[in-house]
Fold:
Amino acid sequence: MAKSAKKYVYFFGNGKADGTGAMKDLLGGKGAGLANMTLLKIPVPAGFTITTEACNSYFEKKKKHPDGMWEQVLANIKKVEDAMGMKFGGSKNPLLLSVRSGSKFSMPGMMDTVLNLGLNETTMKAFQEKTGNERFVLDTYRRLITMFGSTVMGLERSRFDKALDAMKEDRGAKLDTDLTIEDLKELVRIFKEIFASGTGREFPSDPLQQLKLAINAVFGSWFSDRAATYRKHNNIPHDLGTACNVQAMVFGNMGENSGTGVGFTRNPSTGEKQFFAEYLPNAQGEDVVAGIRTPLHIDELKKQLPGTYKELEKIYRKLEDHYKDMLDLEFTVQDGKLYMLQTRIGKRTAAAALKIAIDMVKERRIDKQTAIMRIDPEQFERLMHPSFDPNTPVKVIAKGLPASPGAAVGKVVFTAEDAEKAAKSGNKVILVRTETSPEDIGGMYAAQGILTARGGMTSHAAVVARGMGKCCVAGCTAVHIDEETKVMTIGSHIFREGYFITLNGSTGEVILGETPLVLPDLSGDFNTVMKWADEIRELGIRANADTPDDARMALKFGAEGIGLVRTEHMFFDTGRIRAVREMILADDTEGRRRALAKILPMQREDFAGIFRVMNGKPVTIRLLDPPLHEFLPKTREEIEEMSQEMDVPVDKLLARNKALHEFNPMLGHRGCRLGITYPEISEIQVQAIMEAACEVALEKVKAIPEIMIPLIADVKELEVMREMTIRIATEVQKRYKVRVKYDVGTMIEIARAALLAHEVAPAADFYSFGTNDLTQTTWGLSRDDAGRFLPIYVEKGILERDPFITLDRKGVGLLMRMAIENSRKIKKGMKMGICGEQVDPESVEFCDEIGLTYVSGSPYRLPVARLAAAQATLKKKMKKKGKHIGASV
Amino acid sequence: MAKSAKKYVYFFGNGKADGTGAMKDLLGGKGAGLANMTLLKIPVPAGFTITTEACNSYFEKKKKHPDGMWEQVLANIKKVEDAMGMKFGGSKNPLLLSVRSGSKFSMPGMMDTVLNLGLNETTMKAFQEKTGNERFVLDTYRRLITMFGSTVMGLERSRFDKALDAMKEDRGAKLDTDLTIEDLKELVRIFKEIFASGTGREFPSDPLQQLKLAINAVFGSWFSDRAATYRKHNNIPHDLGTACNVQAMVFGNMGENSGTGVGFTRNPSTGEKQFFAEYLPNAQGEDVVAGIRTPLHIDELKKQLPGTYKELEKIYRKLEDHYKDMLDLEFTVQDGKLYMLQTRIGKRTAAAALKIAIDMVKERRIDKQTAIMRIDPEQFERLMHPSFDPNTPVKVIAKGLPASPGAAVGKVVFTAEDAEKAAKSGNKVILVRTETSPEDIGGMYAAQGILTARGGMTSHAAVVARGMGKCCVAGCTAVHIDEETKVMTIGSHIFREGYFITLNGSTGEVILGETPLVLPDLSGDFNTVMKWADEIRELGIRANADTPDDARMALKFGAEGIGLVRTEHMFFDTGRIRAVREMILADDTEGRRRALAKILPMQREDFAGIFRVMNGKPVTIRLLDPPLHEFLPKTREEIEEMSQEMDVPVDKLLARNKALHEFNPMLGHRGCRLGITYPEISEIQVQAIMEAACEVALEKVKAIPEIMIPLIADVKELEVMREMTIRIATEVQKRYKVRVKYDVGTMIEIARAALLAHEVAPAADFYSFGTNDLTQTTWGLSRDDAGRFLPIYVEKGILERDPFITLDRKGVGLLMRMAIENSRKIKKGMKMGICGEQVDPESVEFCDEIGLTYVSGSPYRLPVARLAAAQATLKKKMKKKGKHIGASV
Structure:
């Protein structure tokens, strides 16, 4: 080893490990887990982990190993040989190795694995001597050639599979095991030919050569298209790199006393405290994960090898005690001896996450703060999604495994590509596949739900769908799919592309046709978590709501006030649009006033209704914002209809439409610009608000109106509008002989207002950041038009994500920071919120970080915002203390 | 005087003065001039100036005098009485006083004046005793009642004028002087009746009461509508306030040895070194200024009172020696004795300003720097305006006074209101008036030129038009105007509203019909000034130019490079639009490439042409910027035509139009967003640029292309485009075997790019601030749509000026400062310019201040930009030294 070389390789085995469970960044999740288990004296085949640093360095050096890495690998092979009492490439008791990727975050099925490395003519003989099982050795060898050929050398796997199928057909064999030893020898020969003809070289016989190529392939798989896509969808940085785990092989396929299994320490769907595992006798682990064979219940192991099962139980409890979280396990039994191959924090459904977190608090394993940090807010959001109405009769036509809970309705599509295409044009689809593979990821994202004919609860489809929180019914054997002709048959039912189908991922039911869905029942665990989150969070939560009904919903979802009432929605109401149009068509102020007088009592009642619901809670009301032309009909037909109805000549309507036409309405005559040029419009609105507040005050309802002036670019606009507002408000209160506390504030939604906030602050009682428009103006980007290029931007990696969905911290966020800091220098503790619907967890965290008073979004999104706000508070506190609360990954 | 009172009143008289000529801020221009002249021992009637601070305090205290002011006034009246040997309100040798406004900046005719204060029954008798001229005393009294009634009490002046006219008609009198003393006594009675019935009170007989009300009226006139409008148009701050000058009356109307005059120390139209004055015997100064009587040449004074004329000559030379600038003078001769009433820096035409400045340098009175500071850039700009083609025959139908030089063509309008209305709808008009009054200001701004039937070279129309640099023919007696029926007759020609007429303000000619205009000849003085400016300025000057012809013009006007070539203009060319449309209609990249290949050679030749003209000077070329739909026809008719021409079905064209339609094109699929989604478009453009540069290099022409990427919001956009540009550029140079130095930079025209400039800088060789789009995005304001509310904003005082015309220092400027500072921290001395056409003097000064490398605008605007840049440099240097170079006002 070169004396200056960095440590790139970490050994584990025989109860000792160079690394620890905390070194996920360097060793990846799998490597850290293996080190941890080894240190916990849990039986793990010896091995070593090559670090993520080595991987990154490999890419920086244009696919050359960093200095010293290979020497460290060789030294560690020696340690593994010593630990296992075997020799890699040895002519006696030969050591076989597996090579597996393992990054910081789990990316199921995304990255490469090669097993059985080290086999060649010499070691096969020795291996056969040791096992006395020629069939097993030949089978292991042909698996090595297949995996090495496809994974390392990039040959199509189907070439090997086809050759196997052809031989089975030729020999009349149903199962692989029906083939004779001679058949297998012939198969190995054929496989080697396929390898040679496909790669232009012989299958390598040097074990070290095999190992080196396999390690490089694992590194290389980090930048495979499908891994990159997965990271993009899951917001995993591309520069983490993967670690590479090299480990002594153990075999679950050495006979009936061998087997392999995977499991969760608790039920990952429901969270129930119950060992949830599957076992497949005489099989290698990859058989289970790939869904090639459907595994059995773990009771099978208990029945066959009760001692081994007992040890497994002891181990999983020990691991849960150690990690204080629900875990996902992989193990292999070789000739009755148990080996743990992997452990990590288990993926779970939102419902399970809630239940497990709450149970662990009850079990006094963790505190409430940790429980709150354990819940993934994005997953949690899906709890808000609809499910089946239990009262609607449905026709169940098949039942598969309840692989990922939830309800999904959509049109049948047969390929991932079709799913993506259909989703783009706005169709809801169900992706049906015999089984899914990593190539299907894009289609799985696009689909409402996934139905597979094969594979178990831990098959690719099941694991990935649960991760996505997407409804999935897996292993539904009644389903027959002809992917070429795109026809699915379930019993007597024939489905072609576009036919409706419904899935119940919680029961595994497949339901005929389109089924109506209902809102989720949010109580129990949900309420417990919300209560804890509310105790912890510092950020206020408000809702955007335009009607009393909306307001009631907002309260139900935990709103502490209304952050945005859009008054224009009231203007569109069928009963009022006529008066609104009269106003727009009026030739002078007087005419507009006459028309507005008709709207006044209706608006007053709107506001009064909201105030009654929100009694004692603040209600931010934005004065009319959209340009007036939005209220006029656009098509010739509509115009003619309006002409008849209002007895106004078509020509006049056309002329007014033309006069009001704007090239860029987003940047046009709207917001406070309307109120300044047509003060009577704003005046009537303020009058309606204040009259409503006074009227409800007489009913002993406490209205707290916050009157909000939209779209200012200069403080003078606000000053003019503020003066008008105070004048009208004073007049109304005098008339009603009632005093109402009200505020006058503004939206910060134009870059200039944010830049000059120090000038705006003295004239504003509060700010609300309109991050939708602020994003549009800061980016020079029309949300309505960006669809033509934003997706290409995301695809090309120019944009990491859509800035309209998650707040752009760097640009828009900088403006917000400036505005907040400069304004609070002038008005300490000034009330400031955000009402732009960017209440996703990341945006909420940012809003908390920059010191906003509250966030406001649509009622359904509030629970997630409450959770995210609590997590933000906890992260902030931990950061201050320099500590980390480990979130579930 | 209260002991703590501030000094609000400054005395001048008898060769002594409390103030000095430098105290313009406090005493106003007139007050400072009076103090200065007094100190220079020039004969000035004694008086005192009440400060602008007193005026501002008066408004702050809701129209109450500040403490101590009145006491100071009383004390100073005493000093005036002593100096003049007269007594205010005295029954012997009574002192009469004038009250005149006077702010820091001259606002001709905008503010109030009251003369002859102090007359009542008692003083009239004493005055008559002293003068022995009852007619004169009565005439003076009736002037007092008129002025006091109209100016102080707000009665309509016409009520007095009508009464005078009625009496003249009744008595058969032609001139005022035809009225008898009895008639005048009767007139005074009638005037007092008009006063009493109009104001509800008797005409005040207490001289101090008269004075107090007059002072208040002068203060009050500061916030009159017309004064506010004038300030708005001239960018004079509203918070300066006016001083008030109270001065002993002297009378130019005391007989044939008396008279009044105004003049300039040099010719204000041409700048010739020649005393340019007018004299009106037996008249008061107001008669001249108001244009009521047309004054005579100053030779009249020389003839009548040669000694007095000699003294006047001595005085004007003394003043010019003192001020080292051309001055404007007002004087009165009372019984042969000369009194100077006012002096100030004289207004002048741009041509005169040039000549005077250059002459004064030649005369070694001032240095070049001072000469440059003396030229008003806005006025200078008008030198660039067109004049008559001397070769086109014109039909001169009348000749008036050449009151303000230049050429003007337009349709006749008869009222200021009509002028404004017509100008708003894009018509060019000539305002024709019998005489103009301050109420006409708005119309004069709106008109191309002004024609009056009455008034001399110093009439309201003449003075104001010269100030505006607007062509004016005044006192054209051949013109007869019936303002009621809106008909003008000139000889046999009858003009109604809308008829075309042409004015030559340099000759006074009125020309029939519409006459073609030509570009100004810019040589001589112009070149001298430009040479001096170029020696002084630090800011670079470039032009926006799209063709070789534009480029030639740019060089002619002093461009040191091209700051912006808009390539889209080349796309619109009739020869190419077909290929451009083929590109837009293509269904795939290959189709687009085929169409683009047709455009390539044409674009290459465009660029080569520009490079040849600009040999050795940088040329910044912006890649395609506008959205593609701008290149497609819009109306059904055009679409059908295109369908036939290109043999493409109408439906396809309609569909493509629909597909490309954008809600907010300004924020849509344009700029680099086009280049990123359709790389082939940018590739062909870069190829054309680099091939052109290589081709001209073979002709020994040095091309310096600066390739500019428009509309970036994030550095990644620039990185993608930069990589493409370098790739193509390298390939082209290799192919031509030529090396060309080129830069790749970007426009900063989106708020986010400015905010994150520290990220952008590493990927950019240069920046060009696109302040047009940057203003649109920073303000959230569509330039195309702002017309509906921006004028109302300016009117209501919400906006001081249109941010698209003069750079918004506070908002947009802040973003620019941030971008410049943050980027130069990373790249010291990074090249940065502005190409948004905001090259007005204020914007140029700001660009110099924030450290831009250059400004770029249309060729015609460059001379002003060069001058403004030189002035900016000088101001900066003086500021550093803490000195001031006095600009002409």
About this structure: Residues 885-889 of chain B have pLDDT under 50 and may be disordered. The first strand of chain B starts at residue 9 and ends at 13. The CA atoms of residues 31 and 49 of chain B lie 6 Å apart.
